[in-house]
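Before the break, one more example. Copy the sequence into your notebook; we will annotate it together after we see the structure.
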Amino acid sequence: MQKVLLCKSDDEVLDYISTGKMGDDMMAMLVPSQRPPATDVHNRPLKVNYTWNDAWDKGYDIDRSKIRIQRFDYIGHSGPSDLLLDYGATNPKGKPPVATVTVDADTLAGAFAGKVLTPDALACLWGCYLGMPADDGTIFAARLAKLFGSGVVAADTATSFEQIVTSPANLPVPIQSRPWKLFPHPQAGH
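Here is what the structure looks like once it is written out:
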């Protein structure tokens, strides 16, 4: 199963990533997916195989000891150093938007610490500038790549969301026809 989360605070997002527990104000939609694999990334049989829907209870909480995150997608506003979870919601009409709730790479990495990710986990950051150096010279995507076995995909420029309304299969694209960048796990290929 795949889950789309709607949250009111950054703490709800971070707590859900690390614990699998829904906050009181969170809403979720479950999207059917394929059944879980019977083998791991090295084609070895999994030690524990259970019915896929047993891991999801009626409250949408999950048991993080049984269900790890294989793919993390962020679709939303961002800058070189932060995900902008609340952007422009409190601005007066006609004023430039300002982010009021942000999450930096270290905070997000903290939520993924421990046994939260599968060994082959991938992050796709569909926002703007997350593959570009921030003012301090660090790159958001590169900071997360050490946690994701399959790396992190991000843009080093602004992204356009215009085409996502024309088809459910369309994703944001980097502007100026620049490609998405893959920031590999530091031990990739070893």
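Strands lie at 2-6, 27-31, 69-74, 82-87, 99-104, 117-125, 152-154, 159-160, 173-174, 181-183. The chain has two domains: 1-67, 69-190. Try to locate both features in your own notes.
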